[in-house]
Request: fold
Amino acid sequence: MTMESVIGIDLGATRIKAVAIDPEGNLLHQHIEPTQDINDAIWKNAVFTAVKEIRQLTGNASGSVGISAPGLPNAANTAIAFMPGRLQGLENFIWGKFLGTPTFVLNDAIAAMMAEARYGAGRGRNNVVMLTLGTGVGGAILIDGKPYQGAFQKAGHLGHMVIDSDGEPDIIHMPGSLEDAIGNCTIEKRSMGKFTSTHQMLEAYKAGDPFAACIWLTSVRKLAIGIASLTNILSPEMVILGGGITEAGDDLFLPLKDFLSRYEWRAGGNQTTIVKAGYGDLSGAVGAACFAREKQAENKKSTD
Reply:
């Protein structure tokens, strides 16, 4: 095994996923275990153990590590600076000191986009937007082949764009956000208590329930408005949709296509390609590994 393999960790609220990939993105090893968010010592030591185990398996005793986690990273991408409410002990924890190796930390949605951009649905594209549709709506932006994190590392929180200025405030106090329009977190409110999950609502939609159809198609229409807005602001080559809600398949993508034909400004006949993400549960870990490799290369170049 060469020293070119790199380790990526996806630290989620439910599971810790660790991988090693080679320069071509091939998965060499993986390690998955529950996060056990009881106290921070448990999951921090679980990350340490996962890195140690994968190093032993690959024969790679050094090299950078990438960590994907919820929240906003600091300017140096050495720690998550802001993550209120979950994973107490994560904020401002310097992983490189703990793991004893250069470690680069980034937001989990940006990590998922990195995996897609380098080895997945967006491979070979330079300007890409990704939306993750699940409990909430996450997002990430690729500009000129590089993840755009913006001032304060806050870029990519696309789920908090305003779709309805008269709507109720979301978790960060934005009115009528895209996240509240389609995220699973609001399905009970949107359905006035009839449905407890998007999956349940979609089953009713497939069975011809007109109430479910009204709720679902309203959500997809608002998603189309959000995507069309993003194409006007960023003009990406491609929009990648990931997350559990994309498992709806044609029930999502066909009406979305119809709504986008109504809302997207297609100057000169040009339209944005919309695709489903290719990576599944390991996208955060793979993307973190990609990010670590690229940051390591940047640092090496600056010191040469």
Summary: The domain at 121-276 is CATH 3.30.420.40 (Nucleotidyltransferase; domain 5). The chain has a mean pLDDT of 92.
